[in-house]
Design brief:
The chain is mainly beta and 247 residues long. The protein contains one helix and 15 strands, in the order ββββββββαβββββββ.
């Protein structure tokens, strides 16, 4: 995964001077990414450039997701010993996702010595990454930095650059990869697809269908055949009649 910073691997374009106010001091610089293409970018750590001839100091490097006056609560911290004449890289325990076009601060504490390039040397404009990435050291009007003296409580904004750079990546990978070291080179190998999961249980039986409607009434039956002739009834009684004619 590609890392991004502002100043690249070479020495910075300006050499910081060594300053010492005789008291402890915390200094920060402000950075931001630009555009929706940097959504998901993460701060992995920081770099501090210490000029040649400076003494080594033990410090705590801090990341702040706001740009207000110090003191503030850091979201990440890491202990470091800074060595003169080089960039000193510090890695935070957990990469921190930042919001595009929103400033964040990286700073270090010092028991005395700190490193600074005057704002007039850096200029008023934002300083873009030497690789032309959408990553910037803030312009002087943002402001570019903050300072805080813990002993007195004095604080404020600054246009100086304090030798600070940021280390970022473009976010967590979409899928796991395996890296193998073969013949002096790292090779990323995509993860193997896992087996298909077991089949799910059979679905429940469907509900019974509704009863059918009654059929149409049948047609009337045919007329029955005529019954058989009844038996002859008994003979009726005899009737006798007398006729009397007058003379």
């Amino acid at each position: 995964m590609t890392d991004h910073n502002v100043f690249g691997a070479s020495a910075p374009p300006w050499t910081p001077s060594v300053n010492n106010d005789g008291v402890s001091v915390n200094v920060t610089n402000i950075f931001y990414t630009s555009g929706s293409g940097t959504t998901g970018w993460r701060v992995k750590g920081a770099r501090i450039y210490v000029p040649s001839g400076a003494g080594s100091i033990s410090t705590t490097v801090s990341l702040y997701l706001t740009t207000g006056n110090l003191p503030l609560s850091a979201v990440q911290t890491a202990a470091a010993t800074l060595t003169a004449g080089q960039w000193n890289e510090v890695t935070f325990t957990t990469p921190q996702v930042i919001t595009p076009d929103t400033g964040f601060m990286i700073g270090y504490s010092s028991p005395g010595d700190y490193y600074a390039v005057a704002g007039g040397t850096v200029g008023t404009s934002a300083v873009q990454s030497v690789a032309s990435d959408p990553l910037y050291l803030a312009e002087s009007a943002y402001p570019r930095g903050r300072y805080y003296y813990p002993g007195s409580g004095a604080n404020g904004s600054s246009v100086a650059w304090f030798g600070i750079d940021v280390i970022m990546d473009e976010g967590a990978p979409a899928g796991a990869t395996v890296s193998l070291y073969i013949d002096g080179e790292w090779h990323d190998i995509a993860g193997i697809e896992g087996p298909a999961g077991p089949a799910g249980p059979a679905g429940a039986d469907g509900a019974d269908g509704a009863d059918g409607s009654d059929g149409a009434p049948g047609s009337p039956g045919a007329d029955g055949s005529p019954g058989a002739t009844g038996a002859t009834g008994p003979a009726g009684p005899s009737i006798q009649m007398s006729l009397v004619f007058g003379g």
